[in-house]
């Protein structure tokens, strides 16, 4: 998903694993307790969940084995099924839409706002039907979606909200953490994300009944023995991953601080550069700066090629948008009109600002981008 990160001079994102993670993993291996099928999870699962609950100020955080599993679990727990429609942006990673298809429900693609590439509530209103059951806003690049407007639409039409917070751990909307502003939040711990467990993810909710359902869904519907009354599957996170995730959780505040600092420096370096619009934060929003995504007025692909040929891990998220991916075109989704989504697909470019990026690296990124713009790349 993130490209050949090992070989870059400055990769777009890279996991930061230290001795602490290694020693915790060794403890798990030595204990022999690699996983548990109990509904509450093992020692490290519980440790990680408590840390996530406290950081996010949410009642329940439940570990699962990927961000995709988090989305799938959320949809199953809300009983989304064939015949239902789920509203979501097409400008996202495939997982958001695939989770909907996996339940048998129909994804209904909604356009994005141009400011921060998150779901557009006006287009959302137009796409609600009598079959609509849920909205999945995506806090893309780590910038919160406009949750007030989305919640208003959800209330009006009696829809659930599942936040795709895969990219936004640590981002906040009006002082509240993303992933805690709706029925269920879904997070990813994939290695490119702000913290990682290898593969991994978790769901969050303030609703006790939904939390119990989510625990069942991640474990074949089981509460005791073989007493399943609802459909679930094996979405459990292993203890080794939870051990890594617990340590990473403790490092999250320092990682976020470094990302914010790097974003500020890069914006200064790029200021006044013609043809490049740096990202910004809205008044009510605090980004976690997972991705620093600029808009290039023209020649995005050439500029990206110039940067990558100079070992700067510039990346495009996402081109094609989901509705233009062959599987979705084959299913007939290619016809939907999403002008802002198509525009963003052609103009966005993400640049590295992760905690390993030094001030010197930021100089290299800015100067290489300037050279790209003044060279053949801009023709
Ligand atoms: C927006 C979005 N949703 C969902 C996912 C799925 O997460 P995972 O890769 O952990 O399954 C990702 C991760 O790449 C993502 O970026």
Question: What would you say this structure looks like, in words?
Answer:
- The protein is of the alpha/beta class.
- Helix content is 39%, strand content 13%.
- It contains 12 helices and 13 strands.
- The protein has helices at residues 19-31, 43-56, 67-77, 94-103, 121-127, 147-157, 208-217, 239-270, 300-309, 326-330, 339-347, 359-374, and strands at 60-64, 85-89, 106-110, 132-135, 160-164, 172-173, 176-177, 184-188, 201-205, 276-277, 285-286, 292-296, 348-351.
- Helix 8 packs across helix 12 and helix 9 (300-309) crosses helix 12.
- The two termini are 29 Å apart.
- Mean pLDDT is 96; it is low at 1-5.
- The protein binds pyridoxal-5'-phosphate.
- Pyridoxal-5'-phosphate is lined by residues 1, 66-68, 92-93, 95-96, 138, 164, 166-167, 188, 190, 201.
């Amino acid at each position: 998903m993130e490209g050949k990160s090992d070989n870059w001079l400055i990769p777009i994102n890279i996991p930061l694993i230290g001795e602490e993670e290694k020693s915790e993993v060794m403890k798990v291996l030595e204990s022999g307790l690699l996983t548990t099928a109990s509904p509450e999870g093992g020692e490290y699962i519980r440790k990680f969940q408590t840390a996530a609950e406290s950081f996010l100020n949410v009642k329940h955080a439940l570990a699962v084995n990927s961000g995709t599993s988090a989305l799938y679990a959320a949809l199953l727990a809300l009983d989304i099924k064939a015949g239902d429609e789920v509203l979501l942006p097409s400008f996202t990673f495939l997982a958001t839409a695939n989770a909907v298809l996996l339940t048998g429900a129909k994804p209904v693609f909604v356009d994005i706002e141009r400011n921060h590439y998150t779901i557009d509530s006006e287009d959302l209103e137009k796409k609600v039907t009598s079959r609509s059951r849920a909205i999945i806003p995506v806090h893309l690049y780590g910038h919160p979606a406009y949750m007030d407007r989305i919640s208003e639409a959800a209330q009006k039409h009696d829809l659930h909200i599942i936040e795709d917070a895969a990219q936004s751990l640590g981002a906040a909307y009006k002082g509240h953490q993303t992933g805690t502003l709706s029925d269920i939040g879904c997070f990813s711990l994939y290695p490119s994300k702000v913290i990682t467990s290898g593969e991994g993810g978790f769901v969050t909710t303030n609703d006790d009944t939904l939390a119990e359902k989510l625990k069942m869904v991640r474990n074949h519907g089981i509460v005791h023995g073989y007493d399943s009354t609802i459909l679930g599957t094996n979405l459990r996170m292993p203890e080794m991953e939870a051990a890594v995730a617990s340590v990473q959780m403790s490092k999250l505040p320092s990682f976020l601080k470094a990302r914010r600092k790097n974003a500020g420096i890069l914006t200064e370096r790029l200021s006044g550069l013609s043809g490049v619009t740096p990202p910004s934060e809205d008044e009510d929003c605090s980004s976690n700066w997972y991705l620093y995504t600029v808009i290039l007025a023209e020649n995005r692909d050439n500029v990206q090629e110039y940067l990558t040929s100079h070992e700067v891990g510039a990346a495009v998220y996402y081109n094609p948008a989901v509705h233009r991916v062959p599987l979705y075109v084959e299913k007939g989704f290619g016809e939907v009109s999403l002008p802002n989504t198509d525009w963003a697909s052609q103009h966005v470019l993400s640049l590295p600002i992760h905690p390993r990026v030094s001030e010197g690296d930021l100089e290299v990124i800015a100067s290489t981008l300037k050279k790209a713009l003044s060279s053949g790349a801009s023709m």
